[in-house]
Structures are given as structure tokens and as C-alpha cells.
Amino acid sequence: MNKPVIVALDFADDFECINFLNQFPKDDEKLFLKIGLEMFCQFGYPFVRNLRERGYNIFLDLKLHDIPNTVKRTCEMIAQWDVQMLTVHATGGSEMIAAAKEGLAGSSTQLLAVTQLTSLGQSELANELQVPLESQDYVTHLAKLAYQNGADGVISSALEVPVIKAATSTDFLCVTPGIRPKSAQVGDQKRVATPAHARSLGSDAIVVGRPITQAENGHQAYVNICKEWNK
């Protein structure tokens, strides 16, 4: 896989989203776009199909988390949509992860498992979720669980990539959100990194939302982040 900058779409309506994408030249049609739960629930599969027909690569970030049979049958449907990436929660367990991979059989969709949300820090992990492990140990445990049950990679903070790669494989994909250029505000993310730092840590792809989508010139913001990422 190339090492893409994935643009997280976070628009209130599909018209606003298309206006944003129209800033990009035609030769940028291979843009990698993340569709999260909010936009998917609002616009559904027709929106995904529309973007695929325009030539965009799609990271469908639904974070599926249910009993194995339900997740498998859902993945069987999504396998027909020709999306490039799909997420499940690693905390769904080994059987659920394996079922998701089985549901995607025959498609080229890569299965990524979410380890620990970047909005959760050590305090939330210990005090709210009652997880006794240190954050890095917990993420590594979930990454190994995903790796052992057929996932193609994980979603994790860039800060955890070296440990995840060491515990799994250098070929195990690490796609990292929580990316902010130096000039951007951190927002609601707690475990963040710059594009250059993520690259140096071994991230295979980065996900960037507001620093691009809310910029005065979204295309130029994207180009600037790509330059930092590809140094």
C-alpha cells in the first residue's frame, strides 16, 4: 500500500462535501477519503457509491462492534461496495475480528481494528473503563489480538506504532489519526503527532480532518501536509 494522507470528511451535508472536493484538481481523483459514522448514517451507501464513482478511495470508518455473526453478515454486504478500508473495534474480541475478515473474503477491502480511541488517555482508561494495563500495553495487546485473527492492520496513535510493529509484523498496517500540523490546535484528541513525526515512527497512513476540511484553502492545506508527510 502507498502511504496516503487520508482526508476525514466531517461535513454537515453532502453538498458542502462535494464543494470541498471540487477544490482539488482532476488529477487528485485518487484522493483517499474517510467516511465516518456520522456522515454514513446521514447519507448512507449512495454517498459512498457516489464518491467511488468519482474515483476516490474510501476508508469506511464504521467501527463495527457486535456479535460475530452480525458483524460477518454486515461485512459480507460491505464487501460488495468496493471500499478500500473498513474498521471494527478490536475490543469485540478474537471471534468477532475473525468473522469480520471472513465476511470480507473475496474483496480487496482491508480490515483495520481500532485499538484505543485517540480521545482516551491513561486517566480515562484507568478511571472510567477500569482497564488495569498501561495505555501502551493495552493497545499492544489489542493489536496482537487483531493480528492473530486476520486483521490487516490497526488504527492507533502514531506514538504506539513502533511497539505495535515490534509485537506483530512490519507489514501489519498502522493507520494513525490524531494528526495535527504544528500550526493546528489539538482539539479533542489527546494522543497526537505531526505528519513528519508519524512518518518517522513508521505509520503506514495518516488521517487528517479539520486542519484540511476547515482550512480557508483545503487543497493547499492538503498539499502542505502531504509535503511534510512525504519528506
UniProtKB/TrEMBL annotation:
Membership in a protein family: Belongs to the OMP decarboxylase family. Type 1 subfamily.
An annotated GO BP: 'de novo' pyrimidine nucleobase biosynthetic process
Binding-site residues for substrate, renumbered to this chain: 10, 34, 61-70, 118, 180, 189, 209-210
One annotated Gene Ontology cellular component of this protein: cytosol
Catalytic function, reaction form: orotidine 5'-phosphate + H(+) = UMP + CO2
Function: Catalyzes the decarboxylation of orotidine 5'-monophosphate (OMP) to uridine 5'-monophosphate (UMP).
UniProt pathway annotation: Pyrimidine metabolism; UMP biosynthesis via de novo pathway; UMP from orotate: step 2/2
The protein's assembly and partners: Homodimer.
Alphabetic keyword roster: Decarboxylase, Lyase, Pyrimidine biosynthesis
PROSITE patterns for the chain: OMPDECASE
GO molecular function: orotidine-5'-phosphate decarboxylase activity
Keyword Lyase listed: yes
Protein name per the record: Orotidine 5'-phosphate decarboxylase
Domain of life of the source: Bacteria
Short name of one Pfam family: OMPdecase
InterPro entries: Aldolase_TIM, OMPdecase, OMPdecase_AS, OMPdecase_bac, OMPdeCOase_dom, RibuloseP-bd_barrel
Domain Orotidine 5'-phosphate decarboxylase: residue ranges: 4-225
Gene3D superfamilies: Aldolase class I
Keyword Secreted carried by entry: no
Organism: Companilactobacillus heilongjiangensis
EC numbers, comma separated: 4.1.1.23
Residues at the active site: D61 (for ompdecase activity), K63 (proton donor), K63 (for ompdecase activity), D66 (for ompdecase activity)
